[in-house]
Write a structure and sequence with these properties.
- The chain has one domain (3-63).
- It is 59% helix and 19% strand.
- The protein has 2 helices and 2 strands; from the N terminus they run H-E-E-H.
- It has helices at 3-30, 54-63; strands at residues 34-39, 42-47.
- The chain has a two-stranded antiparallel ribbon.
- Strand 1 and strand 2 (42-47) form a beta hairpin.
Length: 64
């Protein structure tokens, strides 16, 4: 692997972590009854009524 490829992979990994962090923060800000945590390359959403919120059911089906 060249240095350029290694830097590109590192930049992509950092961008992914920033996106996951923003997603988890936005979910907890908009829906204070739930908890969103980052687990590897996923955001896990837990809490009461998660399956009752159609926004979460829809985005979960899209991102699967």
């Amino acid at each position: 692997m060249t240095r350029l490829e290694a830097r590109a992979i590192l930049a992509a990994d950092r961008a992914q972590q920033r996106a996951l962090t923003r997603l988890a923060a936005a979910l907890t800000a908009d829906l204070p009854d739930l908890r969103a945590e980052i687990d590897g390359d996923s955001v896990i959403v837990t809490g009461r009524g998660v399956l009752d919120d159609l926004r979460l059911v829809w985005i979960g089906s899209v991102l699967r």
